[in-house]
């Protein structure tokens, strides 16, 4: 037998690295590290957003606590009152003295007015008077209706007194 050299018979050694298993190990490792880095980045981003939201919540709570209490109620009441005043200023204003003088000018001579009441909120005038005859009451109603001053006139009450006179009450809307 010729001599065998066992040291050289094993074939040639490959130079160039480890082959497919080494390169796949590097790719898998790099993907693993990228996933870990992405997960860590997302955790950091979520924590940062949670901290920002916590600060905003604290700021909102502080602001809302400042928007409670007597100072704010006072401002709200003032705003409501100023709104009502504005509405009243926009509406028609009726001069009560002028209205009374107009009613006195429309009064029939046989009728004596005993009471005059003006209600601005419900927009009516109530006139109480007395006369001798129902005819004069009818004339008084026609006289008040002849002017375009009132929208409607109602007779609230009619009664005869012990002396024989007739007391009446008229309510006129305007």
Features:
alpha+beta; 174 residues; 4 strands; Gyrase A, domain 2
Overview of the molecule:
This protein is an alpha+beta fold. The chain has two domains: 21-91; 96-173, General secretion pathway protein M, EpsM (Gyrase A, domain 2). It has four helices and four strands, in the order H-H-H-E-E-H-E-E. The protein has a four-stranded antiparallel beta sheet, with helices on one face.
Q: How many beta-strand segments?
A: 4
Q: In which order are the strands of the major sheet placed?
A: 1-2-4-3
Mean pLDDT: 83
Report the top-level CATH class of the largest domain. Answer: Alpha Beta
* Class inferred from helices and paired strands: alpha+beta
Instruction: State the order of secondary-structure elements, H for helix, E for strand.
Output: HHHEEHEE
- Taken as a percent bin, the fraction of beta residues is 15-25%
**What is the CATH topology assignment of the largest domain?**
Gyrase A, domain 2
Total domain units? 2
Number of helices: 4
Q: Major beta sheet, specifics?
A: 4 strands, antiparallel
Kindly state the percentage of residues in helix.
Answer: 40-55%
Sum up the overall morphology in one term.
rod-shaped
Task: For the record, give the distance between the C-alpha atoms at the N and C termini, rounded to a whole number.
Answer: 142 Å
CATH architecture of the largest domain: 2-Layer Sandwich
Low-confidence stretches: none
| Alpha-carbon Rg, integer | 50 Å
Write the CATH homologous superfamily of the largest domain.
General secretion pathway protein M, EpsM
């Amino acid at each position: 037998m010729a001599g065998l050299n066992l040291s050289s018979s094993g074939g040639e050694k490959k130079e160039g690295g480890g082959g497919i298993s080494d390169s796949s190990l590097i790719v898998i490792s790099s993907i693993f590290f990228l996933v870990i880095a992405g997960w860590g980045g997302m955790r950091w981003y979520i924590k940062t957003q949670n901290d920002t939201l916590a600060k905003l919540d604290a700021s909102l709570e502080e602001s809302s606590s400042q928007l409670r209490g007597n100072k704010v109620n006072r401002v709200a009441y003032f705003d409501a009152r100023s709104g009502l005043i504005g509405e009243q200023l926009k509406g028609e204003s009726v001069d009560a003295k002028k209205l009374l003088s107009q009613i006195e000018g429309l009064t029939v001579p046989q009728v004596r007015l005993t009471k005059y009441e003006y209600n601005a909120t419900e927009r009516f005038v109530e006139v109480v008077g007395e006369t001798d005859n129902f005819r004069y009451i009818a004339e008084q109603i026609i006289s008040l209706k002849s002017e375009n001053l009132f929208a409607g006139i109602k007779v609230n009450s009619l009664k005869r007194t012990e002396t024989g006179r007739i007391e009446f009450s008229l309510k006129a809307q305007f």
